[in-house]
Amino acid sequence: MKNFSTVGVRLLIAAVFSGATAVSAGAQNTRCEFRPNAPDQHTVARGDTLWDIAGTFLQKPWCWPQVWGMNRAEIADPHWIYPGQVIWFDRVAGRLRLGSKLGNAEPGTVKLAPRVRTEGLGKDAVPAIPPGAIEPFLSQPLIVEADELKHAPRIVATAGNRVFLGKDDKAYVRGDLKGATSFQAFRPGKPLRDPVTRAVVGQEAHYLGTLALQKEAAPGTDVHTFIVTGAKEEMGVGDQLMRTEPVPMQNYVPHPPAAQVDARVLAIYDGVVHAGQNHVVSINRGKLDGLDVGSVLQLYHVGQTVTDKSADKGWHNLGNPQVKLPDEQVGTLFIFRVFSHVSYGLIMQVTEPVVVGDVARTPE
After folding, report:
1. Which segments constitute the LysM domain (predicted)?
2. Which domain, by its residues, includes 201?
3. Same domain, residue pair 24 and 92
4. Which of 60, 93, 128 is the last residue of a domain?
5. Of 257, 314, 342, whose CA–CA distance to 29 is shortest?
6. Cα–Cα dist 199/262, whole Å
7. Helix, strand, or coil (residue 19)
8. pLDDT-based confidence at 173, cuts 50/70/90?
9. What percent of the chain has pLDDT over 90?
Protein backbone atom coordinates (compact mmCIF):
# COMPACT_ATOMS: atom_id res chain seq x y z
CA MET A 1 0.00 0.00 0.00
CA LYS A 2 1.12 3.53 -0.73
CA ASN A 3 2.01 5.83 2.14
CA PHE A 4 2.54 9.57 2.26
CA SER A 5 5.54 11.00 4.03
CA THR A 6 4.87 12.87 7.27
CA VAL A 7 5.60 16.17 5.54
CA GLY A 8 3.24 15.33 2.69
CA VAL A 9 0.42 14.47 5.07
CA ARG A 10 0.85 17.68 7.04
CA LEU A 11 0.76 19.78 3.87
CA LEU A 12 -2.36 17.96 2.69
CA ILE A 13 -4.16 18.43 6.00
CA ALA A 14 -3.29 22.10 6.13
CA ALA A 15 -4.79 22.58 2.67
CA VAL A 16 -7.89 20.46 3.17
CA PHE A 17 -9.02 21.50 6.61
CA SER A 18 -8.78 25.21 5.91
CA GLY A 19 -12.11 24.64 4.15
CA ALA A 20 -13.36 21.49 5.89
CA THR A 21 -16.97 21.16 6.91
CA ALA A 22 -17.38 22.23 10.53
CA VAL A 23 -19.34 19.77 12.67
CA SER A 24 -19.20 21.58 15.99
CA ALA A 25 -17.46 24.33 17.88
CA GLY A 26 -15.19 21.72 19.40
CA ALA A 27 -14.38 20.20 16.01
CA GLN A 28 -13.43 23.58 14.56
CA ASN A 29 -10.70 23.84 17.16
CA THR A 30 -9.48 20.27 16.75
CA ARG A 31 -6.34 19.70 14.71
CA CYS A 32 -6.83 16.59 12.61
CA GLU A 33 -4.00 14.69 11.00
CA PHE A 34 -3.83 11.44 9.09
CA ARG A 35 -1.32 8.89 10.28
CA PRO A 36 1.97 9.05 8.33
CA ASN A 37 1.50 5.33 7.52
CA ALA A 38 -2.25 5.53 6.81
CA PRO A 39 -3.27 2.81 4.31
CA ASP A 40 -4.95 3.46 0.97
CA GLN A 41 -7.95 1.40 2.01
CA HIS A 42 -9.47 -0.71 4.74
CA THR A 43 -12.00 -3.50 4.18
CA VAL A 44 -14.53 -3.48 7.00
CA ALA A 45 -14.63 -6.80 8.87
CA ARG A 46 -16.81 -8.26 11.59
CA GLY A 47 -15.44 -7.24 14.96
CA ASP A 48 -14.34 -3.83 13.71
CA THR A 49 -15.53 -0.73 15.54
CA LEU A 50 -15.87 2.74 14.09
CA TRP A 51 -13.27 3.92 16.59
CA ASP A 52 -10.78 1.28 15.41
CA ILE A 53 -11.38 2.08 11.74
CA ALA A 54 -10.92 5.81 12.35
CA GLY A 55 -7.72 5.09 14.28
CA THR A 56 -6.37 3.18 11.28
CA PHE A 57 -6.31 6.40 9.27
CA LEU A 58 -6.24 9.22 11.82
CA GLN A 59 -4.04 10.36 14.66
CA LYS A 60 -7.23 11.28 16.53
CA PRO A 61 -10.16 8.89 15.91
CA TRP A 62 -12.75 11.53 16.84
CA CYS A 63 -11.72 13.55 13.76
CA TRP A 64 -13.73 11.05 11.68
CA PRO A 65 -16.65 13.46 10.95
CA GLN A 66 -14.34 16.10 9.51
CA VAL A 67 -12.51 13.85 7.08
CA TRP A 68 -15.83 12.23 6.16
CA GLY A 69 -17.34 15.66 5.55
CA MET A 70 -20.26 15.15 7.96
CA ASN A 71 -22.36 17.87 9.51
CA ARG A 72 -24.09 17.90 12.91
CA ALA A 73 -27.36 16.54 11.50
CA GLU A 74 -25.56 13.54 10.03
CA ILE A 75 -23.77 12.87 13.31
CA ALA A 76 -27.06 12.99 15.25
CA ASP A 77 -28.67 10.59 12.75
CA PRO A 78 -25.72 8.51 11.53
CA HIS A 79 -25.57 6.26 8.53
CA TRP A 80 -24.37 2.70 8.78
CA ILE A 81 -21.20 0.92 7.75
CA TYR A 82 -21.23 -2.84 7.15
CA PRO A 83 -18.66 -5.65 6.94
CA GLY A 84 -17.42 -6.11 3.39
CA GLN A 85 -17.52 -2.43 2.51
CA VAL A 86 -14.28 -0.62 1.76
CA ILE A 87 -13.05 2.64 3.29
CA TRP A 88 -10.89 4.48 0.75
CA PHE A 89 -8.37 7.13 1.69
CA ASP A 90 -8.91 9.77 -1.02
CA ARG A 91 -5.53 11.44 -0.70
CA VAL A 92 -6.25 14.16 -3.27
CA ALA A 93 -9.36 15.42 -1.45
CA GLY A 94 -8.06 14.54 2.02
CA ARG A 95 -11.25 12.63 2.78
CA LEU A 96 -12.36 9.11 3.57
CA ARG A 97 -14.86 7.51 1.20
CA LEU A 98 -17.12 4.49 1.46
CA GLY A 99 -17.30 2.16 -1.52
CA SER A 100 -17.28 -1.45 -2.62
CA LYS A 101 -14.65 -3.80 -3.97
CA LEU A 102 -16.85 -4.67 -6.94
CA GLY A 103 -15.73 -2.86 -10.07
CA ASN A 104 -13.10 -0.78 -8.29
CA ALA A 105 -9.78 -1.27 -10.02
CA GLU A 106 -8.22 1.78 -8.38
CA PRO A 107 -8.74 3.22 -4.88
CA GLY A 108 -11.29 5.99 -4.76
CA THR A 109 -12.94 5.40 -8.16
CA VAL A 110 -16.26 5.05 -6.38
CA LYS A 111 -16.82 7.92 -3.97
CA LEU A 112 -20.02 7.27 -2.09
CA ALA A 113 -21.30 8.96 1.02
CA PRO A 114 -22.27 6.62 3.87
CA ARG A 115 -25.68 5.23 3.01
CA VAL A 116 -28.43 3.34 4.74
CA ARG A 117 -29.32 -0.22 3.86
CA THR A 118 -33.05 -0.60 3.55
CA GLU A 119 -32.99 -4.29 4.45
CA GLY A 120 -31.99 -5.29 7.98
CA LEU A 121 -31.23 -1.70 8.95
CA GLY A 122 -28.49 -1.59 11.55
CA LYS A 123 -28.58 -5.29 12.37
CA ASP A 124 -25.06 -6.07 11.13
CA ALA A 125 -23.71 -2.54 11.22
CA VAL A 126 -20.27 -1.83 12.64
CA PRO A 127 -20.66 -0.38 16.17
CA ALA A 128 -18.93 2.82 17.24
CA ILE A 129 -17.25 1.21 20.28
CA PRO A 130 -17.06 -2.34 21.78
CA PRO A 131 -20.72 -3.10 22.62
CA GLY A 132 -20.05 -5.69 25.31
CA ALA A 133 -18.29 -3.17 27.53
CA ILE A 134 -21.30 -0.86 27.83
CA GLU A 135 -24.44 -3.01 27.43
CA PRO A 136 -25.20 -3.28 31.19
CA PHE A 137 -24.92 0.48 31.53
CA LEU A 138 -27.53 1.09 28.83
CA SER A 139 -30.37 -0.47 30.82
CA GLN A 140 -29.32 -0.69 34.47
CA PRO A 141 -29.27 2.54 36.52
CA LEU A 142 -26.00 2.88 38.42
CA ILE A 143 -26.51 6.57 39.04
CA VAL A 144 -29.79 8.18 39.98
CA GLU A 145 -30.02 11.95 39.67
CA ALA A 146 -31.53 13.83 42.59
CA ASP A 147 -34.86 14.65 40.92
CA GLU A 148 -35.44 10.99 40.00
CA LEU A 149 -35.67 9.99 43.67
CA LYS A 150 -38.68 12.18 44.36
CA HIS A 151 -41.89 10.17 44.63
CA ALA A 152 -40.30 6.98 43.25
CA PRO A 153 -42.53 3.92 43.85
CA ARG A 154 -41.26 1.68 46.63
CA ILE A 155 -41.85 -1.80 48.00
CA VAL A 156 -43.91 -1.55 51.20
CA ALA A 157 -44.67 -5.22 51.90
CA THR A 158 -44.04 -8.75 50.69
CA ALA A 159 -46.30 -11.77 50.36
CA GLY A 160 -45.97 -14.04 53.37
CA ASN A 161 -43.90 -11.38 55.14
CA ARG A 162 -40.76 -12.55 53.39
CA VAL A 163 -37.65 -10.63 54.39
CA PHE A 164 -36.17 -10.83 50.90
CA LEU A 165 -37.70 -11.35 47.49
CA GLY A 166 -36.50 -13.61 44.70
CA LYS A 167 -37.72 -14.49 41.24
CA ASP A 168 -41.50 -15.10 40.98
CA ASP A 169 -42.14 -13.69 44.46
CA LYS A 170 -44.93 -11.17 45.02
CA ALA A 171 -44.32 -7.59 46.17
CA TYR A 172 -46.68 -4.78 47.16
CA VAL A 173 -45.72 -1.35 45.88
CA ARG A 174 -46.91 2.17 46.66
CA GLY A 175 -46.41 5.15 44.40
CA ASP A 176 -47.40 6.67 41.08
CA LEU A 177 -46.58 4.21 38.29
CA LYS A 178 -47.31 6.83 35.61
CA GLY A 179 -48.77 4.18 33.33
CA ALA A 180 -45.69 1.95 33.31
CA THR A 181 -45.88 -1.80 33.92
CA SER A 182 -42.21 -2.83 33.91
CA PHE A 183 -39.76 -1.60 36.56
CA GLN A 184 -36.27 -2.04 37.91
CA ALA A 185 -35.60 -2.23 41.63
CA PHE A 186 -32.66 -0.45 43.18
CA ARG A 187 -31.33 0.48 46.58
CA PRO A 188 -29.89 3.98 46.99
CA GLY A 189 -26.21 4.02 47.88
CA LYS A 190 -23.83 6.81 48.79
CA PRO A 191 -24.38 10.30 47.39
CA LEU A 192 -22.10 11.44 44.58
CA ARG A 193 -20.58 14.85 45.15
CA ASP A 194 -19.11 17.16 42.57
CA PRO A 195 -15.33 17.03 43.21
CA VAL A 196 -15.14 20.82 42.83
CA THR A 197 -18.34 22.27 44.34
CA ARG A 198 -19.04 19.34 46.71
CA ALA A 199 -22.73 19.61 45.77
CA VAL A 200 -24.65 16.32 45.49
CA VAL A 201 -25.27 15.69 41.78
CA GLY A 202 -26.62 12.17 42.07
CA GLN A 203 -26.72 8.99 44.09
CA GLU A 204 -25.23 5.61 43.44
CA ALA A 205 -27.90 3.00 42.81
CA HIS A 206 -27.42 -0.70 43.53
CA TYR A 207 -29.34 -2.54 40.81
CA LEU A 208 -31.37 -5.40 42.33
CA GLY A 209 -33.58 -6.80 39.58
CA THR A 210 -36.82 -6.36 37.64
CA LEU A 211 -40.52 -6.44 38.50
CA ALA A 212 -43.69 -6.51 36.42
CA LEU A 213 -47.09 -5.14 37.37
CA GLN A 214 -49.54 -7.97 38.10
CA LYS A 215 -52.49 -5.96 39.39
CA GLU A 216 -52.93 -2.20 39.57
CA ALA A 217 -54.22 -0.65 42.79
CA ALA A 218 -57.96 -0.96 43.26
CA PRO A 219 -60.11 2.16 43.80
CA GLY A 220 -59.63 3.56 47.28
CA THR A 221 -56.10 2.20 47.70
CA ASP A 222 -52.69 3.02 46.29
CA VAL A 223 -51.03 -0.37 46.70
CA HIS A 224 -50.10 -2.21 43.49
CA THR A 225 -49.23 -5.89 43.20
CA PHE A 226 -45.99 -6.84 41.42
CA ILE A 227 -44.17 -10.04 40.53
CA VAL A 228 -40.38 -10.25 40.58
CA THR A 229 -39.33 -11.24 37.06
CA GLY A 230 -35.59 -11.24 37.64
CA ALA A 231 -33.35 -10.92 40.67
CA LYS A 232 -29.69 -9.98 40.55
CA GLU A 233 -29.60 -9.40 44.31
CA GLU A 234 -32.14 -9.86 47.08
CA MET A 235 -34.69 -7.05 47.33
CA GLY A 236 -37.13 -6.16 50.06
CA VAL A 237 -39.23 -3.55 51.83
CA GLY A 238 -37.96 -0.01 51.25
CA ASP A 239 -36.28 -0.68 47.93
CA GLN A 240 -37.32 1.75 45.21
CA LEU A 241 -38.53 1.24 41.66
CA MET A 242 -37.71 2.99 38.41
CA ARG A 243 -39.54 2.33 35.18
CA THR A 244 -37.61 0.18 32.72
CA GLU A 245 -36.50 2.22 29.74
CA PRO A 246 -33.77 0.26 27.97
CA VAL A 247 -31.57 2.45 25.85
CA PRO A 248 -30.82 0.78 22.52
CA MET A 249 -27.25 0.30 21.36
CA GLN A 250 -26.46 3.42 19.33
CA ASN A 251 -23.98 3.72 16.52
CA TYR A 252 -23.13 7.38 16.83
CA VAL A 253 -20.00 8.83 15.28
CA PRO A 254 -17.23 9.89 17.68
CA HIS A 255 -17.00 13.69 17.74
CA PRO A 256 -15.94 16.57 19.99
CA PRO A 257 -18.84 18.07 21.99
CA ALA A 258 -20.64 21.09 20.56
CA ALA A 259 -19.57 23.25 23.50
CA GLN A 260 -16.48 23.49 25.69
CA VAL A 261 -16.83 20.94 28.51
CA ASP A 262 -14.77 20.85 31.70
CA ALA A 263 -15.88 17.87 33.79
CA ARG A 264 -14.61 15.68 36.62
CA VAL A 265 -14.78 11.91 37.08
CA LEU A 266 -17.46 11.11 39.67
CA ALA A 267 -17.25 7.35 40.02
CA ILE A 268 -15.60 4.23 38.60
CA TYR A 269 -17.40 0.93 38.03
CA ASP A 270 -16.55 -2.77 37.65
CA GLY A 271 -15.38 -2.90 41.27
CA VAL A 272 -12.08 -1.12 40.72
CA VAL A 273 -10.46 1.95 42.24
CA HIS A 274 -8.22 2.75 39.28
CA ALA A 275 -9.78 2.62 35.81
CA GLY A 276 -8.05 1.45 32.65
CA GLN A 277 -9.02 0.86 29.04
CA ASN A 278 -12.63 -0.33 28.50
CA HIS A 279 -13.62 0.62 32.06
CA VAL A 280 -16.74 2.74 32.56
CA VAL A 281 -16.74 5.97 34.58
CA SER A 282 -19.31 8.66 35.26
CA ILE A 283 -18.64 12.40 34.99
CA ASN A 284 -20.40 15.44 36.45
CA ARG A 285 -21.63 16.87 33.16
CA GLY A 286 -24.61 15.89 30.99
CA LYS A 287 -26.93 16.99 28.22
CA LEU A 288 -27.55 20.38 29.87
CA ASP A 289 -23.80 21.00 29.57
CA GLY A 290 -23.65 20.28 25.84
CA LEU A 291 -22.82 16.56 25.88
CA ASP A 292 -24.51 14.03 23.62
CA VAL A 293 -23.96 10.38 22.76
CA GLY A 294 -20.68 10.01 20.89
CA SER A 295 -18.98 13.03 22.46
CA VAL A 296 -15.26 12.48 23.02
CA LEU A 297 -13.33 14.04 25.90
CA GLN A 298 -9.69 13.97 26.90
CA LEU A 299 -8.81 12.74 30.39
CA TYR A 300 -6.21 14.45 32.58
CA HIS A 301 -4.66 13.97 35.99
CA VAL A 302 -5.06 17.23 37.92
CA GLY A 303 -1.72 18.96 38.29
CA GLN A 304 -0.50 19.04 41.88
CA THR A 305 0.21 22.22 43.77
CA VAL A 306 3.78 22.16 45.03
CA THR A 307 6.16 24.43 46.89
CA ASP A 308 8.73 26.13 44.69
CA LYS A 309 11.79 25.24 46.78
CA SER A 310 14.10 26.80 44.21
CA ALA A 311 12.48 30.25 44.43
CA ASP A 312 14.87 33.07 45.29
CA LYS A 313 14.49 35.17 48.41
CA GLY A 314 12.65 37.94 46.57
CA TRP A 315 9.98 35.49 45.38
CA HIS A 316 9.51 34.17 48.91
CA ASN A 317 8.89 37.70 50.10
CA LEU A 318 5.73 37.65 47.97
CA GLY A 319 4.40 35.10 50.42
CA ASN A 320 3.25 32.64 47.76
CA PRO A 321 5.87 30.04 46.82
CA GLN A 322 3.11 27.60 45.81
CA VAL A 323 2.82 26.72 42.11
CA LYS A 324 0.34 24.48 40.28
CA LEU A 325 1.78 21.95 37.86
CA PRO A 326 0.08 21.45 34.48
CA ASP A 327 -2.68 18.87 34.13
CA GLU A 328 -1.27 15.76 32.44
CA GLN A 329 -3.26 14.02 29.70
CA VAL A 330 -3.76 10.32 30.45
CA GLY A 331 -6.51 9.07 28.17
CA THR A 332 -9.61 9.47 26.02
CA LEU A 333 -13.26 9.11 27.07
CA PHE A 334 -16.18 8.18 24.79
CA ILE A 335 -19.58 9.33 26.12
CA PHE A 336 -22.25 6.67 25.46
CA ARG A 337 -25.14 7.65 27.77
CA VAL A 338 -26.17 11.09 28.98
CA PHE A 339 -28.57 12.34 31.63
CA SER A 340 -29.31 15.92 32.64
CA HIS A 341 -26.24 16.49 34.79
CA VAL A 342 -24.34 13.20 34.62
CA SER A 343 -22.93 11.01 31.82
CA TYR A 344 -21.40 7.57 31.43
CA GLY A 345 -18.19 7.26 29.46
CA LEU A 346 -16.01 4.40 28.24
CA ILE A 347 -12.24 4.84 28.50
CA MET A 348 -10.89 4.19 25.01
CA GLN A 349 -7.16 4.74 25.48
CA VAL A 350 -5.18 5.35 28.63
CA THR A 351 -1.52 5.79 29.53
CA GLU A 352 -2.00 5.92 33.31
CA PRO A 353 -4.83 4.72 35.60
CA VAL A 354 -7.81 7.07 35.86
CA VAL A 355 -9.07 7.99 39.33
CA VAL A 356 -12.08 9.84 40.79
CA GLY A 357 -11.51 13.58 40.48
CA ASP A 358 -9.61 13.39 37.19
CA VAL A 359 -10.52 16.01 34.59
CA ALA A 360 -12.43 15.32 31.33
CA ARG A 361 -12.26 18.13 28.79
CA THR A 362 -13.14 18.94 25.18
CA PRO A 363 -10.26 17.70 22.99
CA GLU A 364 -7.58 20.23 22.10
Report:
1. 40-89
2. 139-243
3. yes
4. 128
5. 257
6. 16
7. coil
8. very high
9. 29
